[in-house]
């Protein structure tokens, strides 16, 4: 990068510079910053919160989603979005490109980073005609929800924009509705949510479900853009408002109903009766001050509760879906681990692969006359193998969620009742799990091996090298064998065998640890 000096540098950020790594400043105070490329907002950040300390200052790195666009020349302006004050300006060249940097999609439409750090078509780049179908859909969906006995209202960023500004928030990219059910039990509100989905489908809307209590309606804007209208279910229980997404706070129903109204883009829509209390519960007491870099800080207890009630079957699945989509053309080959296990255990009658992926090991074992079961969190991974082997009585695939204890217990008990000597393996799964997920994996293996003398065969990345092995297996980080051994002991098991080996001839090869874990029966 080299600076082109014809634009004057501002004085709002001390020793500020824009470079290949990101944006640097020696300013010690917190500062909200809008980043504009050639006059258009692209991204917003908080200097201290989002930066890291480097050379006595702060570096805010370019977001991953933006980096592929940073090749060429661009006029960068850093501004305070609350006052409009220009804090710094600079013309820079990034990468090796000679043309102007444009952050657009394949159709040439402008993109910006939203609150989830995704490049999307935000509302500030759309005009009234573009968003008219979305406003119409909000009206229609509110009507549909009323037909099934609910009182829907604008929620989250849509409510914030309506109450504070009377318009859609420019840096937002979707619209949100909420409702508070008359039911107070999670099972009942889940059943109600599926009723709502069927109603919307009957109206002709295309609906995607986020979780058991949240769904997205796809709305086509005037130029064909697919815009999301999110519907978040909620309920009151023991004096607490639970609204899917972020909210679990002490609340009173009369603060929600009877609903009030607010104007959004010239239309009147329902909002909670006490909009101040509702928006304070959502965004904190400073909700009246715009913050395009706002990040939800949901308490861990709320996340845990919502995961257990409503979204246990979807957490993290999108990442695996992306990985298996990218690797779907790879040929199915049995792993070195399963080839060795089959050779060492000629009398095995049942094989179980926890985290079977595309099912290559399951198919390999079944071809040797052994009943083989593949368990995985992402059903699209093993879908092709399941179709090809649907008439094979030795092959069975089953959805299996290690993050959901009820699932772990039910599926593991099912396997445990099957007769005969068995092998249970898991490859490159434990590295991607939380501690709770790892303990659930050990619990599942223990249950499946109950009444046998067999061990659980576990393989994981113990050192991330400079070869392509981690990327090829969708692994982001290694797991220390000592840490895994501690968890094994915590789960009542013993590491019977532990071997480490390099996976390639690369001078900085990745290392894999293979463990055999047993439990006293």
Automatic annotation (TrEMBL):
Which parts pass through the membrane?
none
At the top level of its lineage, which domain of life is listed? Bacteria
PANTHER family from the xrefs?
FUKUTIN RELATED PROTEIN, RIBITOL 5-PHOSPHATE TRANSFERASE FKRP
What's the protein called, per UniProt?
Class I SAM-dependent methyltransferase
